[in-house]
Amino acid sequence: MTDTCPLPEQSRHRSGFHASAPPQYMQKESQNLIAHSLHEDFQALLVGPLFMALAVVFFRHAGLLTGGTAGLAFLLHYLSGWRFGWIFFLINLPFYIFAIRALGWLFTIKTFIAVALLSVYSELLPNFIHIDLLHPAFAAIMAGLLAGISLLILIRHKASLGGLGVLAIFLQERYGIRAGKFQMGADCAIVLASFFVVDPGRVALSVLGAIALNLVIAVNHRPGRYMGI
Fold first, then answer.
1. How large is the C-alpha radius of gyration of the chain?
2. How far apart are CA 103 and CA 88, in angstroms?
3. How many domains does the chain have?
4. 44, 154 in Cβ contact below 8 A?
5. Which pTM was predicted?
6. What totals of helices (H) and strands (E) does the chain contain, helices first?
7. Rounded CA gap, 84 and 120, in Å?
8. Would you tell me which of 72, 179, 200, 209 could form a disulfide with 140, CB atoms 3.0–4.6 Å apart?
9. Could you give the count of Cα atoms lying within 13 Å of 106 in the half-sphere of its Cβ?
10. Sign of CA dihedral 86, 209, 61, 43
11. CA 17, CA 21: separation in Å to the nearest integer?
12. Is residue 3 a part of any domain in this protein?
């Protein structure tokens, strides 16, 4: 569950975003797009985290994990036994500062709502789902696909699930550190740390899930076709 906040290529060389207004490229693109209504944004913020929560159920049941802030939450969950939802919510709190400064208040508010709902959903869903058999490979692929769909929904409504992806954008816009390289480095560090928590086979399947997630994003989210953050 990578912390995905895609940006168009042309924005990668800009000096920074204004905290109080959407980035200029968003204003320009929005002139050619039909804006989402309030109720459309509302349903996206309800449904997007629900798909991700189902992915979390699959990951957790199969003993797998993923990248980004969710990966950190899984590591702490497996090590401590603390609830994933609470860990994920608390880990995200510091990143809202970077979200406000890099992507504005509206994006940050939507992201906060999405993160809060994911935290709640991930704890409530096990009360409604009882899994007797779940093959780890199927869990990895299906969870990755569900996570990708979830992120697509949020991306297209200018929201995210916060975390390291937001920090990556902030560092890129403020200090010129490439967001993709930072995100890759962070994910690699999480994968390396996971070898001390889960067995290598589970790590390999977790990578398979990450590939499925990123394929969904790569194929279905193309700047210029459908604008998103």
1. 17
2. 21
3. 1
4. yes
5. 0.81
6. 10, 0
7. 10
8. 209
9. 11
10. positive
11. 8
12. no
Tracing tokens 């309030």 back to the chain, one arrives at: 38
Residue 6, in any domain of the structure: no
Residue type, 38: L
Domain that holds residue 151: 36-126+134-220
Name the phi and psi angles at 206, rounded to 5. Answer: -65, -40
Per-residue pLDDT of 94-131, as tens digits, reads 999 999 998 899 999 999 999 999 999 999 999 999 99
What pLDDT digit, counting tens, does each position of 151-197 carry? 999 988 988 998 888 998 888 888 888 887 888 889 889 989 999 99
14 token code pair: 């800009």
- Residue 207 corresponds to which tokens in the numbers above? 């990578």
Is pLDDT above 60 for 24? no
Residue (of 115, 90, 78) closest to 203 by Cα position: 78
- Pick the closest to residue 52 from 164, 145, 155 (CA basis): 145
* Three-class secondary structure of residue 177 per DSSP: coil
